[in-house]
Amino acid sequence: MNWSRSRSNRGLWLILLPLIAVVLVPTACVLWFANRAMRNEQLAVQQRLTEAYRLQLVSAQRRLDEYWRARLDDLKAAETMPSAGEAFAQLVRTGQFAAVIIFDAEGHASYPARVPWRPPPTSANETWDAAAAAEHEGGSLRRAIDMYGEITDKSSDPQERARALIAQARCLAKTGEKAAAVGILTERLSDAQYRNATDERGGLIVPNAQLMALHLLDERSTPQYRRILGDLVNRLNDYGEPAMPAGQRLHLMGEVQPIAASLTGMAASRVASPAEGSAGDFFFNQDALFPTLEAERLAATYLDADQPPLVGKGSPEPTASPGIWRWVSPKGTIVALCAEQRLADALTALAVEDISSHDITVKIAPPRTGTSGAFLTMPAARAMPDWTLALYLPGPKPLETAARRQAAAHLWTGALAVMVVVLLALVVIRQISRQVRLAELQNNLVATVSHELKTPLSSIRLLLEVLAENECQDRNQVKEYVGLITSQTARLDRLVEHFLAYSRMEQRRHTFVMAAVEPAKVAQVAVESLQERCTAAGAHLTVEVAPDLPTIRGDIEALVTVLVNLLDNACKYCENQPQVLLRAYAADGQVCFAVQDNGIGLSRRSVKRIFDRFYQVDQRLSRKTGGCGLGLSIVRFIVDAHRGSVQVASEPGKGSTFTVRLPVAPQR
Length: 668
Description:
By secondary structure, the protein is an alpha+beta fold. The protein is built from 17 helices and 17 strands.
């Protein structure tokens, strides 16, 4: 049996190994091709991405070139404007430049510019000196007020009268006459003849007078206060001719800003335009109060560094101020200043306007700024050759990620093909293995049937020949021979019954008639069926059935077959004075049938295989016990059909105990 099994296993492997090779070789080829396809796809994705993103960067570069051409046109247009102040305001208010400086043809700053100090007219120097001495050198403030009033009455020069009026108001404020001082500052100096009057340093007098009036007024919620503040704000934002000196404008903006901050949300009146002189209501907006304030400060800082205008190069270049870039107009009369970070952010926003993919990041990098990790770089624009336009892909390894996404279809296709091949191979292997096992079972069945049927048939034929030849004269001997023929016939009957049961098991055609069965009845019928055989074998059979056992649901004939097979094995495999015990009892909600013997016992290996078809513990051809190795496999088949279990406990030389556990029938 072992030799035939090993031979059949070798035959099975001789069939399976080529089949496995047929599966593994195409699988390895598919995986190799999938790997190569992924690598080629990665290169193809890199090339496609490079071309696609390069086109987008070229488009962004084109937009940046158009942007700088538009800024160049702005500078050219500003060069033709007659007013430097208006050119400054127009360029700054576009938001494209942080500040600008306007130069004249000789290279002097026109705006912002420092106005030199100019002394008052010589005809009034003596009176002015006396009034100033009375005001500042411990004289009488009242006398100074009268002397400034005398200058106002006698002078025919509007500028001189305006200077005298503001000096008179200053003295009145010092004496505590704030109302009179405010009246001069807001009423008399509001006359149109004083609008462009300047002081000794070239600054406009009226804006200074308005700021002084705001400081003198105690109540800030009055319409007068709001009107004065509104007029002053409008004047500071007016860059028309004559332009207010940049230093005065910057100083007054710094003074007015905290005053306006305290009035945020409070209504004030303003002059719609200096020419019209009409008024309207508005609300102060701190963000838009002085749009040119930061530009004024930056321009002043640039001029303090004494940086002269340069010949226009057509491209931005760094200045001595950190983070500030300048762009000189073609004629060299305008220097436009740009903050590096603000410029980079604005250009970046412009560059990504038409980029379709939201997964990429585009940045404008100033010179000396690294672009490590960028997928693609190129010069930002022709006007900015030192600036870099950089494109970044998402993730730590974006190209590999994109390639994996593109190659996923190839990989999944290959994996699906491999899975189909493997599944088909498993199906084929299973079918082949099943056919091999069936062939092995058939061979074993033929060999077993041939051997097991030949022995009793030979014995019957021999006994019949003896009886037929009348060689046996003794009646008792004849009776003995007839008994032997009967036992061999019963043996044949059992073998045939086992073969038929095995055939039904294999074809799944065995049916069971389920009904309520008393466990004691099953034990009784089984013992009665086997009593004569046990007596003939010299076995002592003991039966212990617990009282009041619950009923079980099953086929009584099949259950009797189970006990008969177990009891028959117990009698056959006991060498000397067989002692067989059949017990029926209840345990753990089940009914148990235990068959215990004092036979030869089983090894651990035999215990694992005892229920296999055609397995026999004694596999010698000269074994004393008959059988085809189907009894216990039939036992397990019947027990499984009844949703029970069968267990064996055995040791070599110490006997065996087979325990069948069956579920109790449900109570109605």
